């Protein structure tokens, strides 16, 4: 992951793509179609020996991906550089940024393999879950949510890292 520092603005996160590995793990469950293609090597897995998850999958198996996209943490900063003060507005913008990066690579929420979410306020958890659910639709990825004391800029309330594949 690359970060650049701008005086007065803090760190900017630059999305990077990583070439696929040549590994062939066993299939663990039904695969789901990718946006723009008939099939992709992504399968969700929720083993019965682990509690039933909410709006995420316990595991996501990626078998022989053609492309793997690693996305740096997206925050609530709009393309014009502005950042809303409201945490829910920042969630909307972070998801819009994530969607724009996925779309720029011919992908969408169905291509997500893993999301890691950082929130600075526990009161944002219900809003995050509702907005993520509306944004992702039926697609599920592995997911981790962390409450943190702060992010790279004290204005930031949310940051979303993600990985996608097709």
TrEMBL record:
Annotated GO CC locations: cytosol
Composition skew (Polar residues), residue ranges: 34-47
InterPro entries, sorted: RutC-like_sf, YjgF/YER057c/UK114
Gene3D superfamilies reported in the protein's UniProt record: RutC-like (3.30.1330.40)
Superkingdom classification of source: Bacteria
Protein family (similarity comment): Belongs to the RutC family.
Name recorded for this polypeptide: RidA family protein
